[in-house]
Backbone:
């Protein structure tokens, strides 16, 4: 297992559940045992959830695994499936699960400037939480889900918050323009400034950031900056290994890669969706937890397993006290209608359709109807 987080742990659990009783080695470059990332931009950042509560393993769980933590994989040898580590060690395996996830993209030129943060790891979240506790003016670059959650948490902590988004509307990609506009109106509801349709030219400050410079010439003063401009798959270590890379690890619906005995799962996997006839790399918690079971079954059976039909991708986000849930693919829709609630009360249940058939569903504070639609969607598309 390379990658000791949600997808790697889920794969390790599935291996044991499916009867594998051989040697299991989990390699992770972070020093921490697997922890949950979603709270890092929510309760953990707000200070209402402690580090112990982030643990993904239960106290009595024993996977009988060897944990090589603080160990970065730097290569994979295709002939004997040996994973090379940065410290020179090698781990040979009969099967390899690639679960190296994704890393936050940074803003070129911002390296080494104090007060500038990205948010992907526990260490990132600790550093940002400490800074937010001091208060001041926060500028979030990027109005996607992580940027929006950080803005929401910082607003609740009493900071003065501005979000800068290059697109005309945040979240238009995942939710479509109309629903993206409704969800991102939450910022304005709470007095958080949202500057859309303008790019960031750079940051100013000698040793510590003091402002964000916009491409239209405006300057936004800042004490703290969070760069939330997406993530890139961590797959550099596989270059030259024979594993085909294309926006992550290119793999089948069952995680099978171009190398026998090697599967990919979680945020780093660009898997084939047989329903849509294309590859997708989905950075959502539920897929990273659920999909490894099928990949591991494939590995144990030497490839002779029917790939499970993937459920429509699902994610949630918590912003300004509103639970946002989404399942399916907005891009596939030719219409979207509000079926319950109303945009101005921010309690929308919206259904996306293509030629009259549901392809996605969005809920804002509509957990029960959302779950019903999610089930219906899974049944309709299976
Ligand atoms: C702040 C935040 C909030 C989120 N909130 C939500 C949410 O509300 N809802 C939702 O659906 N999803 C959310 N997500 C996404 C969700 O957490 C991810 O989809 C999930 O963590 C993916 O798990 P993974 O194991 O594939 O990858 P990761 O969690 O990225 O883990 C990969 C691990 O592999 C390690 N690694 C990388 N390269 C190497 C290497 N060469 N050698 C060894 N180890 C390596 C990494 O350091 C990391 O520990 C959030 C993510 C973040 C960061």
Residues:
């Amino acid at each position: 297992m390379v990658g000791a987080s949600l997808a790697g742990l889920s794969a390790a659990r599935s291996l044991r559940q499916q009867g594998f009783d051989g040697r299991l080695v989990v390699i992770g470059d972070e020093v921490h045992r697997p922890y949950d990332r979603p709270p890092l931009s929510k309760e953990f950042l707000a200070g209402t959830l402690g580090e112990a509560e982030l643990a993904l393993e239960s106290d009595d769980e024993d996977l009988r695994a060897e944990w090589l933590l603080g160990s970065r994989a730097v290569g994979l040898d295709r002939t004997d499936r040996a994973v090379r580590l940065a410290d020179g060690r090698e781990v040979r395996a009969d099967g390899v699960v690639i679960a190296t996830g994704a890393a936050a993209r940074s803003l070129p030129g911002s390296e080494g400037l104090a007060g500038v943060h990205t948010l992907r790891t526990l260490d990132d979240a600790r550093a940002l939480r400490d800074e937010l506790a001091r208060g001041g003016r926060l500028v979030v670059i990027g109005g996607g889900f992580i940027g929006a959650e950080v803005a929401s948490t910082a607003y609740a902590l009493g900071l003065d918050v501005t979000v800068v988004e290059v697109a005309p509307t945040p979240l238009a990609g995942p939710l479509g323009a109309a629903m993206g506009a409704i969800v991102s109106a939450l910022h304005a509801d709470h007095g958080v400034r949202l500057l859309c349709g303008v790019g960031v030219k750079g940051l100013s400050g000698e040793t510590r950031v003091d402002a964000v410079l916009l491409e239209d010439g405006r300057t936004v003063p800042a004490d703290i900056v969070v760069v939330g401009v997406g993530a890139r798959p961590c797959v550099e270590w596989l270059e030259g290994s024979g594993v085909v890379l294309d926006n992550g690890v290119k793999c089948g619906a069952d995680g099978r890669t171009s190398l026998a005995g090697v599967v990919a799962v979680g945020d780093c996997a660009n898997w084939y969706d047989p329903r849509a006839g294309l590859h997708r790399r989905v950075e959502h918690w539920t897929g990273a937890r659920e999909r490894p079971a099928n990949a591991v079954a494939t590995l144990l059976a030497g490839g002779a397993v029917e790939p499970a039909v993937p459920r429509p991708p699902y994610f949630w986000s918590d912003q300004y006290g509103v639970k946002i849930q989404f399942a399916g693919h907005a891009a596939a829709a030719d219409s979207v209608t509000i079926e319950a609630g109303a945009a101005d009360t921010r309690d929308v249940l919206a259904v996306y359709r293509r030629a009259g058939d549901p392809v996605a569903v969005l809920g804002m504070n509509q957990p029960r109807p959302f779950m019903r639609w999610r089930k219906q969607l899974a049944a309709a598309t299976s």
Notes: The chain has three domains: 6-103+232-301, 106-229, 321-381.
